[in-house]
Amino acid sequence: EDLYAGALTWDLGADEAVAAHARRVAAIFPARGVREGVTIDPHTTTMLRTVYPKLVPDYDVRVRSYLEVLAERGLPTTAPLHGEVVIHDSCVYARAENVIEAPRELLAAAGLTVGEPASTRQPTWCCGGPAEALYPAKAADVAARRAAQLRAVAPDCVTMCPICLINLRKAAGETMRVRDISDYLAEAAG
Questions:
Q1: Whole-number Å distance between alpha carbons of 55 and 7
Q2: Torsion sign over Cα 22, 36, 108, 95
Q3: Residue 125: which of 95, 98, 97 has the closest Cα?
Q4: What's CA 144's distance to the chain center, in Å?
Q5: What is the pTM of this model?
Q6: Does the pLDDT value for residue 132 go beyond 90?
Q7: 3-class DSSP state of 44
């Protein structure tokens, strides 16, 4: 019953279709006694936390990213990491959901030094991914420029979004290692 939240459809502006889908998804929560949800990506987080309350009458589910939950509870670190990484903030996490400090706290708890690129935190630079389907050349240009900004800080980049991960890996090629934050956290937790 873990249904898709509808982020791509929402981004395309199909508001009525998303509203109907959101009502179907949201109906599962009270039927199963769900009062709180933990999400693993920024797009699902913003759909369930910010968009659904606007679309679904009486929607009452507290939604947090797993990054927020881990930062609140503390990362169990049994194999501390070492080195410096550059962080690429997800546009959705940073701009829409204000999930900015939790990833930094977790990476520091894992033992890493977190470098900040140009255009970080809320004014983060996009990875180019959202425009790829309609404007592939523009998306590739945006991603290449962002990869250069990141590479100028550290050879290892941390992302928090699957779209950012794929797009920045493609843009960076062999010039920079791009990994999702979950890889680092799992490694530090042993």
A1: 13
A2: positive
A3: 95
A4: 19
A5: 0.92
A6: no
A7: helix
